[in-house]
Every structure is written in structure tokens, then in C-alpha cells.
Amino acid sequence: MSDQQYPQFPQYPEQPRYPGQQGPPPGPPYPQYGYGPANYGPPPDNHLVWAILTTVLCCMPLGIVSIVKSNQVASLWAQGLHAEARQAADDAKKWAIWSAATMGILVGLYVVFLIVMIVVFGFAATELTPT
Is residue 18 part of a domain? Predict the structure, then answer.
């Protein structure tokens, strides 16, 4: 056997100590990788069902934006961007609500239009009939 030297692990400088501090310096001398101690729980609801329903049944452009936002939730959560994933979930919900509200407003305006047309043509028809 030969006396082969193996490479040594790099020596990291010791972290500074503050006056009055006892014991080893706090924390590791270099960054730790892997799973962190924080437990963020399950990912937020992405509201994909509502996004699809509002796209099909309501206002398509706003529903498409809702679908795009809801699809971003899982990938952002997997990347560890939890605040951005929650924001994307909230945005997906907001766009789905706006899509449904837009459809409700349009249906309401159509009903008002029909009532106005019935009233206008109803009066016009009574004035044109000979008596």
C-alpha cells in the first residue's frame, strides 16, 4: 500500500464572536442545503375547476387568465416560492370571480335590453293598429 494523501475538506473560517458570547458560534459555518425545518403545509387550492367552468360558461378571456394563474400554483409551490404560489392562487380565484361577474352583468344588461325593446315595440304596435 502506498501512503497516498487524500484531499482535506475545506476549512471554513470561524464565525465572529460577540462580546459576552459563550460557547460555539451560532449556526453552521457554511450554508446548509436540503429540506428546511419550516413546514408550510399543503399547497393552496389552485381553483382550477372554477377557472375552467368560468372559461367555458362565462367570459372566455378572463377565464383563460384564471386557468394560467391556477396552473402556476403547483410549480411555484414545488420551487419553494410559497408566497408567490399563494398569490397565484388568489389571482386565479380573483380572475374567475371577475369572469363570472362579467357574465352576470352581460346577462343583466341583455334582460334590460329585452324589457326595453318589448316596452318600446309594445307601445309602437298599439299606436300603429287602427281602432
Answer: no
Q: How far apart are CA 65 and CA 96, in angstroms?
A: 8
Whether the model pTM is above 0.85: no
CA distance 105 to 58: 11
118 lies in some domain: yes
Distance, CA of 10 to CA of 37 (rounded, Å): 26
Contact 18, 34 (CB under 8 A): no
| DSSP single-letter state for residue 130 | -
Taking the C-alpha atoms of residue 49 and residue 55, their distance in angstroms, rounded to an integer, is 10
Q: How many domains is the chain built from?
A: 1
Residue 97 in any domain: the answer is: yes
Tell me which amino acid residue 108 is. Answer: G
Classify residue 103: in a domain, yes or no: yes
* Cell numbers found for residue 102: 362579467
Q: What is the pLDDT of residues 72-85, one digit of tens each?
A: 999 998 888 889 99
